[in-house]
Amino acid sequence: MKRIAALLRRRAITAVPVLLIVIAATFLLLEHAPGDAVDSYLVSLGGGDAKLAAELRAQYGLDQSGFARFRLYLSALARFDLGWSVAFDRPVIDLVRERLPNTLLLMASATALSFGLGSLLGIAAGARPGSLRDRALSIGALALYAVPGFWLGLVLVLFFSVQLRWLPLAGMETIASGKQGLERALDIARHLVLPVTALGFIYLALFLRVMRSGMAEVWPLDFVLFARSKGLSRTRIVWRHVARNALLPLVTVLGLQAAAMLGGSVVIESVFAIPGFGRLAQEAVSDRDAPLLVGVILTSAVLVILVNLTVDIVYALLDPRIGSGEEGA
User: Mind listing the pLDDT tens digit for each residue in 44-99?
Assistant: First the structure.
């Protein structure tokens, strides 16, 4: 436990400058972008005079210098205040709390599908490298990985929702259904089948190929040859020796794909009209809502860091060599 605690402490310390860089870079990029939320609001009203624009900018603090607003934003972050959304006229933290659970549910379900099924198919392919089954699964994974997520989502909608009418077309749950408890959970699950499939199948192909490649590299190693010389069954060798050691790089890929999956959820949420974190980012960009967009990006960075911290812990549990040199740090 000391080894894992030292590793976790070291990673948490290095995460602080990463967050500061993300905050500063995002703020500077938005500072140099043309227009602001007031311009977008006046366009939605059909126009407005300069006096109204000046009053709105003074109300939301947009008339101050960039350095002053950045300093105020840092002081607000120190109080866990993400600011005020100009487009929604609500605190950013409330919007994050409202939308983030939907995206986390989508990502967790898609990750479980892609990692679990991808690992099993990768083991099936890597159990006999070079076999017909291995080649068929590898070619299928490559073809699936080349499919754009939005295109796969649209195809699933046309087939399962429009033609067969088996699953809901869009949304997170049935609007104003009044369902509670288990009935509501089942309704949400039905709505998530298609978006989870569209998001998860793309990364399933990646996990399959990584698992298969990892097993192919483990087969020629000495400890596997020793296990075969002892007369162990091929099934036991695959599960107890080869697959277990090939799982380590797969866990690493899982952490690296967290950010990619969070970005991919933006497209999937738009296709299936899911009120999640990705659509919130899209609305912040379209409305030029800088405080909301900075809050979304900062929250996304924190999520990616937490996922990678979790992956580091799992990796240390699977491989005792990881973090052994950091116990005395």
Answer: 566 666 777 777 667 666 667 767 777 877 787 778 778 778 778 788 889 989 88
Instruction: Give the span between the Cα atoms of 322 and 4, in whole angstroms.
Output: 9
Give the residue from 155, 171, 149 showing the smallest Cα distance to 276: 171
Q: Are 214 and 277 in contact (CB under 8 A)?
A: no
Token pair belonging to 296? 């979304």
Q: DSSP character for 284?
A: H
DSSP state letter for 91: E
What interhelical angle do 243-271 and 277-286 show, nearest 10?
Answer: 50
Domain map (residue ranges) of the chain: 92-286
| CA 315 – CA 168 distance, rounded (Å) | 38
Cα-based distances in Å from 66 to 70, 78, 266, 287, 288: 6, 18, 29, 19, 16
| First vs last C-alpha separation in the chain | 14
pLDDT band at 329 (very low <50, low <70, confident <90, very high): very low
Give the per-residue SS3 of 148-207.
CHHHHHHHHHHHHHHHCCCCCCCCCCCCCCCCCHHHHHHHHHHHHHHHHHHHHHHHHHHH
Sign of CA dihedral 128, 130, 134, 138: positive
Helix axes 243-271, 149-156, angle to 10 degrees: 70
User: 84 phi and psi, to 5 degrees?
Assistant: -120, 130
Q: Which fold has domain 92-286?
A: MetI-like fold (1.10.3720)
> What is the C-alpha separation between 83 and 245, in angstroms, rounded?
46
Assess contact for 252 and 311: CB atoms under 8 A: yes
